[in-house]
Amino acid sequence: MGSVGTISNVKTTAYTQSESDHIVYGAKSAVGNTLKFGAVRSAAADWSVYPVGTEFKIEGEPYVYQVDDYGSALVGTRTIDLYRPSKAAMNQWGARLVNIKVLKWGSFDQSLAIMKPREGIKPHIRQMVSAIETRRPPDS
After folding, report:
1. I need a surface site. Which of 31, 58, 112, 137 has the fewest CB within 10 A?
2. pLDDT in tens, 29-80
3. Calpha distance 102→24 (Å, rounded)
4. What string of DSSP letters covers 82-113?
């Protein structure tokens, strides 16, 4: 696992629950909780890069972001998608390169536990599972 610290020039985008590709999930994240937008905010990422539970801050912002979601467009990228409660807020963010400070790395085991039962449903989930499994030996 990476060390806790700053990662520079991370591409970030924003998403909202009313986008056409998210509407089916409503305001729920991939872990099943309500998408958060307060002191702690939801973020989506490729879980083979930023495993579920990873917590980070964006330089210059007071909020803690927590990876609790994933998205097919993020797989194979290092992009982090930040949850916003409205399309206006999503569009206002746009796409930005930011420096993030990782406060805590999430768990690849937990990521696999959530994704394994869904593996047959979507190709992007299979891709993340495979990337995690090839990155490390089983039972590590």
Report:
1. 137
2. 999 999 999 999 999 999 999 999 999 999 999 999 999 999 999 999 999 9
3. 30
4. EE-SSHHHHHHH-SEEEEEEEEE---HHHHHH
CB 32 within 8 A of CB 114: no
Dist. CA 30–CA 115, nearest whole Å: 9
What's the pTM?
0.89
Q: Are 66 and 97 in contact (CB under 8 A)?
A: no
Beta-strand (E) ranges in the chain? 6-15, 40-44, 55-58, 64-69, 80-83, 96-104
Q: Are 103 and 57 in contact (CB under 8 A)?
A: yes
